[in-house]
Amino acid sequence: MPAKRTREHFGLGVLRLAPATSVFLNCPYDPEYGPLFDAAVWATIGCGFTPRSAVESGTTAEPRIDRITRAIFESKYSIHDLSRCKGEGDANLARFNMPLELGIAMARRALGRRLAERHDWLVMVPAGHPYGRFISDLAGYDPVVHNGTERGLVVAVMRWLATRVDAADTLSPDQVLKGLPEFKRAMRKLRKSWGPWPPWADVVLAGLQIAKQFRL
């Protein structure tokens, strides 16, 4: 029997999410990156935070950039993986949606008048990524480098989130990684029913239930 979504559990559009524990994930949306995206979602939940995403509201009449901006402004934290910012395909075009969303997060931080209101963000890049060639202004921020594996991404996300002031009790990556296979099974089940992008509330609810099961 499928889990019932309630106010007490999680319901986007129904429950007002706490900005202090919300993390906007700005990552590629393609099949190749899919396992890493799931790992980032799971690592975020494992650290006691609620993941937000550009896909959380589905297709609506509201422009996508407005939905993204609102989600970022409703989140105290954001994580940006610039993995796809390089030439691809016959036209050798790069995807710049991720740098654009990073810029929104940087502006969000600049608008915070008090320290407690400031948006905090993290940039991640895969090993050997030439980010400095096209966003040289990031050179002073020391992006976190990951090795492109699920474990590497979980460790990179946890290393940052575990040090945020709003983090839950400190956990080791091994503790969180134990629950990753179960979360992946839950995601496969959801995608079998809904397709590539199941309702975001169901994704987060599945993660919360598994986190409880593994006592995270």
Strand order in space, largest sheet: 2-1-3-4-5
Helix content: 40-55%
Poorly predicted runs are: 1-15
Number of strands: 5
What fraction of the residues are assigned to beta strands by DSSP?
Answer: 5-15%
- The Rg value, from CA coordinates, equals 17 Å
Write the layout of secondary structure elements.
Blueprint: E1 22-26, H1 34-46, E2 50-53, H2 64-73, E3 77-81, H3 97-111, E4 120-126, H4 131-134, E5 144-146, H5 150-161, H6 173-177, H7 180-194, H8 200-213
Helix pairs in contact: 1-5, 1-7, 1-8, 2-3, 7-8
Which key phrases capture this entry?
single chain, five-stranded parallel sheet, alpha/beta, disordered N terminus, 216 residues
Please, could you describe this protein's structure?
With 216 residues, the chain is α/β, with parallel strands linked by helices. Helices cover 41% and strands 11% of the residues. It contains 8 helices and 5 strands; from the N terminus they run E-H-E-H-E-H-E-H-E-H-H-H-H. The chain has a 5-stranded parallel sheet with strand order 2-1-3-4-5, with helices on both faces. It is globular and about 40 Å long.
Short synopsis of the structure:
By secondary structure, the protein is α/β, with parallel strands linked by helices. The chain is 41% helix and 11% strand.
